[in-house]
Each structure stands twice: as structure tokens, then as C-alpha cells.
Specification:
Layout lengths: L2 E6 L16 E2 L2 E2 H10 L4 E6 L3 H7 L6 E4 L6 H6 L10 E6 L7 H11 L4 E7 L8 E4 L5 E5 L6 H4 L3 E10 H8 L16 H7 L5 E4 L12 H21 L3 E2 L5 E9 L4 E2 L3 E9 L4 E2 L4 E3 L2 E2 L4 E2 L4 E3 L1 E3 L4 E2 L4 E2 L3 E3 L4 E4 L2 E3 L2 E2 L4 E4 L2 E3 L1 E3 L4 E2 L4 E3 L9 E3 L4 E2 L4 E3 L2 E3 L4 E2 L4 E2 L8 E2 L18
Parallel strand pairs: 1-4, 1-6, 4-5, 7-11, 12-14, 13-15, 14-16, 15-17, 15-18, 16-19, 17-20, 18-21, 19-22, 20-23, 21-24, 22-25, 23-26, 24-27, 25-28, 26-29, 27-30, 28-31, 30-33, 31-34, 32-35, 33-36, 34-37, 35-38, 37-39
Antiparallel strand pairs: 2-3, 6-10, 7-10, 8-9
Bound molecules: uridine-diphosphate-N-acetylglucosamine and calcium ion.
């Protein structure tokens, strides 16, 4: 029966961007979505406080069940939470979260909620070597939390405190409502500070507990592009560590990027500078070599993707080799024990099992059968300037190097096409078809000399 309130009304001026701050992305997922995902395990309702760019923020998150709450003027974090009062139940615990703190883990929130149980009020804090800019947690001689003092309002001794307020808290609805009503803008910024509810609770003899978050990157707020890049790296390293603990071999977790979901079987290896985007599935014993980009694709068992290859929205069979320098464009299916080699581009095509396209080819809008050999430099001419046409190459065909197959065209079963042919009509099964001028030699010809 818990509730979340996520603050996301601020402008984010320091991002220097037309895009709302919480819509910037980490791991290709917007900051606000990260926070929603971390909290959704623990709460029944999610209230998001929006202000600047509110229309764009709402539009960017259509798939979520969110109660959007408008804060027209940004009069402080306390004022922001006040806007959600009508949606707070007295007996539920409220998680207060920030749309620009995306790396917070679900299990940290779980710990915080446990800490909040006895007294109904718990803060998430963190110890920083350089606490500059943050609200300090002030404790009495018994270690009990007394207040939070903002950088701008802090005394010299208070500034020395290294335990800081992350702003994240878990608090009983009835307490939250009572203290929100007592807020006054008695501070340098003239704002309603949410943190002032701590002093009210202390006066009320509420024993405020805290959970000290071990990992500072988890609670880092993002205010500018530099922090955005730091969050991206922390996120990627954390993801790489999770994947490694599930058995994935990653050659260097500092040079690994996954912007989406990655599923994999046993004994897969990811070499350096590989980028995964969207939803990818790897079978068993898949090897991805350096500098590959794999997007929304499925790769079968024992297949190797050699360096500098790009695969998008495609299905690759097992025991197959792709690359180096191959480009597999969307809607391509490649069978088992096949090979797509250097500088080969394949688009919207099927290549069945045991077939090879080893060098320098373009295969587009094609259906290539099994046991086919496509020689070096073969081009399917799929586009007439206005429309795209299909090429069909039946099982067992052999296409000689540097041939052009002008679509629409069908190459028959076990047909052979002589090297250097331009094929504009269907070629029959089992026969050699070629289209070339007869070779001739001109006896009297001489090389021109320099004038
Ligand atoms: C806040 C805390 C501080 C803590 C720090 C951690 C207060 C008064 N201070 O300070 O103790 O150390 O976070 O990062 O709470 N927002 C709104 N509406 C508003 C004001 C802010 O939605 O009217 C949102 C902002 O978009 C932002 C978040 O609340 O995402 C934090 O606000 P900000 O003004 O940046 O607070 P800090 O000064 O960082
Ligand atoms: Ca901030």
C-alpha cells in the first residue's frame, strides 16, 4: 500500500537543452523512467510532479500508470510535494524520489522502507568526501538526526559534516501531511524546503532513522551533461557487472555498452567496444568481436560475429560467421553454418543454411537458398530507380564473381552463373548461364605515349 512521489518539475537550466531534464537518457532510457522502474516494485501508485515541459514529459511516458500532478510554479521541493497531498493516504508509506536521480536501485528502496517501519520516517543518506552543495545531516551527541541544513544556510561547523541528504525519504502519509502544512519559506532561497519536515518531526519526538547508501553513484543527481555522462558510465559498468555475475564473459566492462535488454546462453564472449541496442538474444557460445553494433537481433548457438560488423533487426542462425566488416540490415534471416564475409551488405533478405556470401557483395530483397555460393563482388540490382524487385537464388546455385543479378530474376536450382555476367532473365536449373562478350585480342594496339 505504498505510494511514490517523484519530483520532476524543475527546468534543468544547466543541461542547456530544449529537452526536459528528466527526458535525457541513460542506457537509452529516460531518467524519469529509471526512477519509475526502481520504485514500481514497492508501490501501488506513482505520482509524478511535473511543471516545466510537462506536456512533453507526459507524452514521453505513455506506457506507465502514473498520476501526473502539476506544480505550476516551482516554489521549492516542499511546495512540490504539497501538490500531491490529495493523493496521499494517511496509513501508507510515501517514497519521495527525484526524476533526475536515475541510478537508484530497487533494493536500496527496499532497505529504506524497512528502516522506515518502526517510526514512520527514514532518510536515505550518503557519506561524501566532498559534500559541497548538499544538505548536511545534523545529528545530536547520541547520533539521532536533528535536522538537515542546506549548503547556503549552513554554519562553518555544519559545513564540515560529510553525511549528506540525498533528498530521498520514506515517510508515513499522515506524518508527511502534517509536516508539509507547517512549512515556511524561512531560508536564503525563499522556498518551501521539503527537508524542513525533519525539524518538525524531531520536535514531534519522531525517531527519524536513516539508511546510509553505500554507493554514492546510486544517488547522484544529474544537473549537466558532464554528470549525465558519468551516470551513463556508472550505469553501464553496473550492468556489465550484473551480466558477468550471470555468466557473460565481458573482456572489458569499461568498454561495454548495453542500451536495452540482453539475454544470453552459456559461454558467450563479448569483446571490447561492442554496443547492444534494444532487445537482443544470444544463444550459447556466441562470440562478438570488437567494435560491433547489435540491435534488436537474435544470434544462434556457436555463431561468431567478427570485428566491425553491424546487425540490425535480424535473425542469425547457429554455427554461422558474420563479418568482419559486414552489415546486416533489418528483416534479414541467415541460416545455420552460413557465412557472410567482409564488406557484404545484406538487406531484407533470407539466406538459408550452408550458404556463403564471402566478399564484397550487396544482397537486397533476396531469397537465397541453401548450399549456395555467391562469389566476390556479386550485386543484386534490386532497384530500378522507382521500385524494388526480388531476386531468388535456388538451392545449390553458384554465382560467379562480379555478376549482377538484375531483379526481378530467378536463378534455378544448382544453376551456375559465369563470372562477370549481367543476368536479366531467369537462369534454368542445373545449367551454366553466362552473359559476356567473347574475349578478343587486338594485335596492332599500342599504349599511348606521353606527349
Ligand atoms: C535537494 C535537497 C538537499 C539534497 C539535494 C540532493 C531540499 C530543500 N534540498 O536540494 O537537501 O542534498 O536535493 O540532490 O529539498 N523540484 C520540483 N519543484 C520545485 C523544486 C524542485 O519539482 O519547486 C525538483 C527538481 O526538478 C529536482 C528536485 O526537485 O529534480 C530537487 O530540487 P533542487 O532545487 O535541485 O534541490 P537541491 O538544491 O538539489
Ligand atoms: Ca539538484
Amino acid at each position: 500500500m505504498n505510494t511514490a512521489i517523484i519530483l520532476a518539475a524543475g527546468q534543468g537550466t544547466r543541461m542547456k537543452s530544449q529537452t526536459a531534464k528528466v527526458l535525457h537518457k541513460v542506457g537509452n532510457k529516460c531518467l524519469l523512467q529509471h526512477v519509475v522502474d526502481a520504485s514500481s516494485d514497492h508501490v501501488e501508485t506513482i505520482n509524478v510532479i511535473v511543471g516545466h515541459n510537462s506536456q512533453a514529459v507526459k507524452a514521453a511516458m505513455p506506457k506507465n500508470k502514473i498520476n501526473w500532478v502539476l506544480q505550476e510554479k516551482q516554489l521549492g521541493t516542499g511546495h512540490a510535494v504539497q501538490q500531491a497531498i490529495p493523493f496521499i493516504n494517511d496509513d501508507s508509506i510515501c517514497l519521495i524520489l527525484y526524476g533526475d536521480v536515475p541510478l537508484l536501485q530497487s533494493k536500496t528502496l527496499e532497505e529504506l522502507l524497512i528502516k522506515a517501519r518502526p517510526s514512520g520516517f527514514s532518510l536515505l543518506s550518503v557519506v561524501l568526501n566532498d559534500p559541497f552543495g548538499y544538505g548536511r545531516i545534523i545529528r545530536d551527541s547520541n547520533g539521532l538526526i536533528q535536522s538537515i541544513v542546506e549548503q547556503k544556510d549552513a554554519s562553518e561547523s555544519e559545513l564540515k559534516v560529510k553525511e549528506i541528504n540525498t533528498g530521498i525519504m520514506a515517510i508515513q502519509g499522515s506524518l508527511l501531511k502534517r509536516y508539509l502544512n507547517e512549512l515556511k519559506p524561512n531560508n536564503v532561497q525563499g522556498e518551501l524546503y521539503l527537508t524542513d519536515i525533519v525539524e518538525s518531526a524531531v520536535k514531534d519526538n519522531v525517531n527519524i532513522t536513516s539508511f546510509v547508501c553505500e554507493n554514492a553513484s546510486e544517488v547522484m543527481g544529474i544537473n549537466d551533461k558532464k554528470q549525465l555522462s558519468q551516470a551513463e558510465r556508472s550505469y553501464q559498468v553496473r550492468q556489465a557487472e550484473d551480466l558477468m555475475s550471470s555468466g557473460l564473459t565481458i573482456m572489458d566492462p569499461r568498454r561495454f555498452d548495453c542500451r536495452g535488454d540482453l539475454n544470453f546462453g552459456d559461454d558467450c564472449t563479448i569483446d571490447v567496444n561492442v554496443v547492444f541496442e534494444g532487445d537482443n538474444v544470444l544463444g550459447k557460445n556466441v562470440m562478438i568481436s570488437p567494435n560491433c553494433i547489435i540491435k534488436d537481433s537474435k544470434i544462434g548457438d556457436n555463431t561468431s560475429i567478427l570485428p566491425n560488423s553491424i546487425i540490425e533487426n535480424s535473425i542469425i542462425g547457429s554455427s554461422t560467421t558474420i563479418g568482419p566488416f559486414a552489415r546486416i540490415r533489418p528483416d534479414t534471416t541467415i541460416g545455420d553454418h552460413s557465412k557472410v564475409g567482409n564488406f557484404v551488405e545484406v538487406k531484407k533478405s533470407t539466406i538459408k543454411s550452408n550458404s556463403k556470401v564471402s566478399h564484397l557483395s550487396y544482397i537486397g530483397d533476396s531469397n537465397i537458398g541453401a548450399d549456395v555460393n555467391i562469389g566476390a563482388g556479386v550485386i543484386t540490382c534490386n532497384y530500378d530507380g522507382s521500385n524494388k524487385h526480388q531476386t531468388e537464388v535456388k538451392d545449390g546455385a553458384f554465382i560467379g564473381s562480379n555478376s549482377q543479378l538484375v531483379a526481378p530474376v530467378i536463378i534455378g536450382k544448382n544453376a551456375t552463373i559465369g563470372a562477370g555476367s549481367t543476368i536479366t532473365q531467369n537462369a534454368p536449373d542445373d545449367k551454366l548461364t553466362l552473359s559476356r562478350n567473347k574475349q578478343s585480342t587486338i594485335d596492332k594496339w599500342k599504349r599511348p605515349t606521353k606527349k
